[in-house]
Amino acid sequence: MPLGNVMTGHDVLKSMSLQSEASVLRITPEERAVLQLLAGGKSTRDIASHLGTLESDIDERLARLFARMGVSTLSQAVAAASKRGLA
């Protein structure tokens, strides 16, 4: 089997792993976007403005997401998301 096929298979498995990680945590595309914005250094106020919603809505969404991720702070959430390939 050529090496290119093995590497392609690895990439497919990695992609499937990331998708299943998001599925296990039940992270919506919007929640993933919020995590990515947080990882990029945006504040909850910036994220709310970007999404056209209230900062309190973002705070509530993050509280629910943090509970599912088993974290309690923004920095823990960003680190966990990065480790899992979600941000």
Class in CATH?
Mainly Alpha
Tally of alpha and pi helices? 5
Cα(first) to Cα(last) distance is 33 Å
Backbone shape: globular
Low-confidence stretches: 1-20
> Main β-sheet: number of strands, strand sense, barrel status?
none
Give the overall pLDDT as a whole number.
78
Number of strands: 0
Topology (SSEs and partners):
Blueprint (H helix, E strand, L loop, with lengths): L2 H23 L3 H11 L4 H8 L3 H15 L4 H10 L4
Helix pairs in contact: 2-5, 3-4
Structural overview:
The chain has helices at residues 3-25, 29-39, 44-51, 55-69, 74-83. By secondary structure, the protein is mainly α. It has a single domain (3-83), classed as Winged helix-like DNA-binding domain superfamily/Winged helix DNA-binding domain (Arc Repressor Mutant, subunit A, Orthogonal Bundle), CATH 1.10.10.10. Helix 2 packs across helix 5 (74-83). The chain is globular and about 25 Å long. 14% of the residues are buried.
What characteristics describe this protein?
Arc Repressor Mutant, subunit A, 87 residues
Please give a quick description of this structure.
The protein has helices at 3-25, 29-39, 44-51, 55-69, 74-83.
